[in-house]
Amino acid sequence: MEPYEVYAIRYATMARRSAENFIGGDPHDIATSLDYFVWLVRGANGTFVVDTGFNRDAGRRRKREFLRSPAEGLALLGVDPASIGQVVLTHLHYDHVGNFDLFPGATFHLQDLEMQFATGRYMANANFAYAYELEEVIGMVRNVYAGRVTFHDGDAELAPGLSVHRIGGHTLGLQAVRVWTRVGWLVLASDASHYYANMEQGRPFPIVIDVAKMVDGWRRLRELASAPQHVVPGHDPLVMQRYRAPSAELEGIVVRLDEEPRI
Questions:
Q1: In this structure, is residue 262 part of a structural domain?
Q2: Which of 34, 65, 145, 247 is least surrounded, with the fewest CB atoms within 10 Å of its CB?
Q3: Could you report the per-residue pLDDT of 22-47, keeping only the tens digit for each?
């Protein structure tokens, strides 16, 4: 089986308090910032983008520090979004689906339950609806009617050495991505674990529909990876410290994940 290269592209950031990152966190404690990523997976069996991020306008509305368009980050790795044929959407929150229009030739991979959740009864509750953007959800429904969405019901192999796995807790249909690399099986957790500390210390993230399933999901992430250190969280700034940039020019922008972490 041919290994893939895997890259994390950092496109935005924001300051967070502990209470915003952990259930039961101290509301007065200043915690680490929260970084926003999209991911590139490429190899002999294809090139895949995992999630599409948000744009500058969404960052301004939600008071996030927008650093660069995810499209710009992909271009730094020699990838034109218009050339991408396969995009995995881990879920439909605004920071994971916001630039889908930049991928006009792509098929989007999504869990059945995520579309059900994003268009169902719970979106009448502001607590759940806040993390979704209505126009983005409607846009993805339009893509369904255009035949551009491939739905999955649980685990599915998209290509040799690349598969998606539904992980409960954060949303109804969140999926993680498992990738075969030169260091073994790597798992892009996305929001199944925002930070290393969520899964390593057993401290759930507060945006959650089922805490028990979130906790079970951490065990599943570890089962899917060749080693615990090869589970990469979705928003932790430590990712940029634990992995190396592929070149000096990409320091602080891109890190390569298909290697052993430095710390």
A1: no
A2: 145
A3: 887 665 565 679 999 999 999 999 99
